[in-house]
Amino acid sequence: MSPDAVGNGALIPFSGETNDSLAVYPLHHGLARPISRVALSWSRGNSLRVSLFAEPSGSFDTGDGAKVIEVKLGGGDPEIDDADWRRIAYGSVAPFALLQSRRNSLSALSKSSYHLDWWEHVLQYSKDISSLLTGPKLAPNPIIEDPNEIVTKNEEPTCLKAAWELMEIFYVDKQSQAWLPEKLVDWLADYDSLFTSTQETIHGKLVDFQNDLVNIQVIEDDPRYWEVMSSALSVGWLDIVVKMLRLHGSYQIDQLSKRELENGLVEAVAVLISKMPRLRPESAAGNLGECFKSKPDFTKAWEKWRSQITKLDCSPYWIQCDNQQTREGLRNMLQVMLGNTENLCTASCYWIELYVSHFLYIRPFTTGIESMYNLAQKCIQLKTPTGTHRLTGLMIGILAENTEVVIAEISREFGPWMVAHAVELLTSGSEEAEILLHDERYNLGGISMVELHRLAYAQVLSSHALTWQIAPIYLTSCMKQGMGLLENLLYRQSVQHNNLLLKNIEICRLYELDHISSNIMKVAGVYHWKHGRKGAGVFWLQQSQDTNCLDRIAQQLFDSVGKSISDESFKQWEGLIELLGSESKPAGGLEFLHKYRDFKKSLQMVYSGKSTDAARQALMKNPSTPQRFWLPLLFDSLKLLNWKDSPLLSVSETNLLLNKLQELSLARQRPHFTEPNLPPQALSSIRLALATNLGRAILDE
Amino acid sequence: MAATANSETSQIHRFHQYKYVDAVRWLPVLSAFNRFAVLATSDFDSNLSFIEIHSFKPNPLSFDFQSSWTSPSPISSLKASQFLQNSIIAATTSSGSLHFLFADSTDATLQSEVSVPENELHSVSETCIDLMDGGVECVTVGDDGKVNLVTVGNSNLNYRRLFDSGGLVSYTAVKWASPVEFATGGYGFGLHWWDQRKPGGPVSQFKGNWDKNLNSGIVHSIDIHPSRKHTCLAGGSLGTVLAWDLRWQQQPIILSGTGAGDGAGNSAVQSISESEVWEVQYDRCIKSNTSSTRILPAMICSEDGILGVIEQGEEPIELLAEPCAINSFDIDQHNPLDVICSLEWESVAILTRQ
User: Fold this and answer.
1) Beta-sheet strand order (sheet of B317-321)
2) Would the CB atoms of B187 and A497 count as touching at under 8 Å?
3) Are A395 and A362 in contact (CB under 8 A)?
4) Most B CBs within 10 Å: which of A498, A504, A570, A583, as the mutation test of the B interface?
């Protein structure tokens, strides 16, 4: 892509041939002069950093010469923002890690990767994840119930949660396999509102009607009242329908006497609706309908219920009812309950609603995914979708039992988090899916699809400063490439801030990556050293046991010691010398500093008139003393050499020191010799003192 | 294993903040009805940092945002104290500036701010501060090796440098012991004792013979109990918590730590954590049976997600075990049963002990 500057200052990309998929986004940079150069680089997350350089100009007051703009790519998920995605990412770590450790302990027990009760673990995992996907809580319900409120909701539904629960229903929840159709009924009741964005829905119609309710005088005269009710009935929202029926005008006390028969019919339908038999274990507390666990019981109740409806439908009372709207509306509802295909088709808005109404009123015994898929295709034919919704593609993929389509759909619609976590659901019950997803593939570079999607998700986590710490959990579950990428990730973190550095080292410790933590500490040590924090630098280099580096910086340190350690500034060095500890730790040549400090201290004791023995020992027992310190050391100990009472050093000791002095004089001739910062007569006075001491020592012996 | 406090003895509330929480403190206020918490937060999406005041109500449960102040860069150290009618919040930033915020004592609205610009006290580095209880003296230390004393007035402030190690020694923790004395912590578990009456450097250095039986680490936090000024409690790397008694300088009392390993006399030490101990405070809920010779119970929070109480010679008690790091915590001065802590995963937890 080569950018071109156009007249108005906007950058547009152009390519040789016309390409329909090319998108042009105007970029407002506010540079006055034409742009001469553009640099692109990745910034945090999926932001692109665009640096724009204006053409150089002769005068100074023509505005800025360059601008850096961050462009956020991809609008992200419309219903979940970045911060909320992070909340979900944090929350899913524990369930994911628990499931992986359970898988590992199970596969350690037996060779087979397929376990009968494995789905129970996955169900637990699925419920944990699902609880994270709840949208923001809405205000709690008012304590006084609004009699006109038909639709209530406790939380804002999200497509993400709807998709997750759909997969849970089909792939994981083996216990409810027998009443799968009823699970779909519940699912639609929770998430029908989500489809309102792309098409008309029963939920949308209900909400519209509720909003108009205050303006309607006689509710049963409004055709929408009856329309909305048979729609809600068709998808099994029994509570709502019964509640709406009770709003019928014939229930009002002043009308009751006049419209006794009409009211009787309304109430009869309401009772029938609330007695509807359902093939399911139990419904949520307070929900209408009668639940039957076993098929024979249900069949008996179902036949009885239908015969009651037919009986009511043929009843002579309808002729006596003089309210035409009520009569027609109620009989229409009876047709819905009897499973009249035409009525169901008009009552529902789109194919999933029609699909659910088939389960409820026509084929309550539908079992097996294949027959469910056939029914879905029939419904799609009856209600051709006008637009596509992100959930319908997923649903068709699941019903068609096509794992690859499901993966592709959730990947496109919900991103890497979804795929990395939903894979566990897909493989929970099906060996075929397990083989498909866990098989290592040549075209993926020898890794499985599961690993590929986990790695992709880990990359997303790694690119953000707040989530990189959880990427290792996913990387370590990838057998082939995980560890390599983990090492990369750990190396890439900044060493500038101690907290971050320590968190990084802690991850190394958890995964036993000692060689990496050692390298990171080395980098940190050099970083601190370079920025003048000598103590911190020495500490980290010691931690990484890098004797090479320590030796090198020891030489630099000696240079400053030779100049500054004199007397007063010694307080500053104290702390560093404490840090070095004793020689059992690798400190390069630095342990000398420790001894030098001890020597200085003992000299001070001598000056204050205390024992001289310690100082003498400190002077003589330092084989590791760097050559450059010989002269300053000897100069410091002049007082010892000239000790009044008796010679402190023996003949052999004095000879040793004289030899050293001789060696030093020779060394001075060589290049690279650094002259210590001492008074000019220092050498001669040391030589004199040593000679005097030698003389006295010979006499003594 | 540490004993776990069961849910009957404490209530835990978590509040997701949707931004990183750098540090957290209770705000000491006079009002009996309101409880306020100070949060230092960083919003990584907008690159802004804040000091926020939230009000906490246990019943009905709420943790509501009250007011905030935008900081020039992320907060590296946060302290709160009370002075006359005001609550003072002191904070240093990662760019080296120091800020004092004054909040109304009853409704915690932020009223004014005075600050020392960057590079005056510390060059760009990590810093730590401590605010004197009920006072206006603040000591700041940094890993650049500088030690400063800042005195706050109503609208002005004075500061002077007490010491500059020139980077040879870095300081990572500080705590007042008395109006003239304070303790600092640094690399290699180094602890220094300072006395303003004896300027020119630390008056005492802690010399444990670490290298024999302890791996070295960094001190992250220090606490000193007002009734026992001679004992300095420090927490740091490798789950280490130790008490340094000025009267027996050569022997630290190790309360926890994996580094203690097989050292003589430390074999009985149980470790509550194996990773960084980010903060340590004396637990203000003092039990009556604590004898005067023992170290008072201390609360810690750690990188491996533990909030717990350790007591010399007792089994440690875990109050919280989170899947992520607990980076800081604070015990409410007026109601020591309440503990607030900041979690790595952009949230705050409030623990109410029974």
Assistant:
1) B3-4, B317-321, B306-310, B298-302, B277-282
2) no
3) no
4) A498
Q: Which of A90, A531, A575 sits opposite B165 (nearest CB)?
A: A575
Alpha carbons A360 and A337: distance in angstroms, whole number: 9
Query: Which residue in the block uniquely carries the two structure tokens 């219903």?
Result: A79
Alpha-carbon distance A457 to nearest alpha carbon in chain B (angstroms): 18
Token pair, residue B263, equals: 């050292």
pLDDT at A8: 46
Query: Tens digit of pLDDT for each residue in B184-213?
Result: 999 888 899 999 998 888 888 876 555 454
Token pair 């990359």: residue? A459
Interface confidence, given as ipTM, is 0.91
User: How much is the average pLDDT of A325-347?
Assistant: 92
Closest by CA to B19, choosing from A87, A27, A161, is A87
The verdict on a CB contact (< 8 Å) between A578 and B324 is: no
Do A535 and B186 lie within an 8 Å CB cutoff?
yes
Contacts of B145 in chain A (CB under 8 A): 533, 535
> Long-range pairs for A440-447 at CB < 8 Å and ≥24 separation?
A440/A480, A445/A481, A446/A480, A447/A478, A447/A480, A447/A481
> What is the structure's pLDDT at A398?
93
CA atoms within 13 A on the CB side of A673: 14
Q: Do residues A98 and B323 lie in contact, with contact meaning Cβ atoms separated by under 8 Å?
A: no
Query: A225-229 long-range contacts, Cβ below 8 Å, gap at least 24?
Result: A225/A329, A226/A325, A226/A328, A226/A329, A226/A332, A226/A333, A228/A202, A229/A329, A229/A333
Q: How many CB atoms lie within 10 A of CB A592?
A: 21
Give pLDDT tens digits for B29-87: 767 678 899 999 999 888 899 999 999 988 788 899 989 999 999 999 999 988 777 78
- Cα-trace Rg, chain B: 19
Residues from chain A that touch B125, judged by Cβ atoms under 8 A, are 533
Q: Which two tokens stand for residue B188?
A: 């290699």
Taking residue A411's Cβ as centre, other Cβ atoms within 10 Å add up to 16
Q: Which residue has the tokens 């924090």?
A: A533
Q: Pick A506's closest partner by Cβ from B44, B202, B275.
A: B275
Chain A partners within 8 Å of B210 (Cβ): 581
> pLDDT class for A9, splitting at 50, 70, 90?
very low
Is A579 in contact with B212 (Cβ distance < 8 A)? no
Cα A85-B66-A81 angle, rounded to 5 deg = 15
Is residue A359 a contact partner of residue A253, using CB atoms and an 8 Å limit?
Answer: no
Which residues is B16 bridged to in the sheet? B347
CB A690 within 8 A of CB A641: yes
**Token output for B141:** 């230390």
Q: Which of A424-438, A519-533, A626-640, B51-65 has the weakest average pLDDT?
A: A626-640
Of all residues in chain A, the one with the smallest CA distance to B205 is A575
Report the phi/psi class of residue A392: left, alpha or beta, with left for phi > 0 and alpha for psi in -120 to 50: alpha
Check the CA dihedral A627-A630-A631-A636 and report its sign.
positive
Q: Is B280 helix (H, G, I), strand (E, B) or coil?
A: strand
Q: Please spell the DSSP secondary structure of B167-209, one letter per residue.
A: TSS-EEEEEESSSSEEEEEEBTT-EEEEETTS-SS-SEE----
Distance between B187 CA and the closest CA of chain A, angstroms: 7
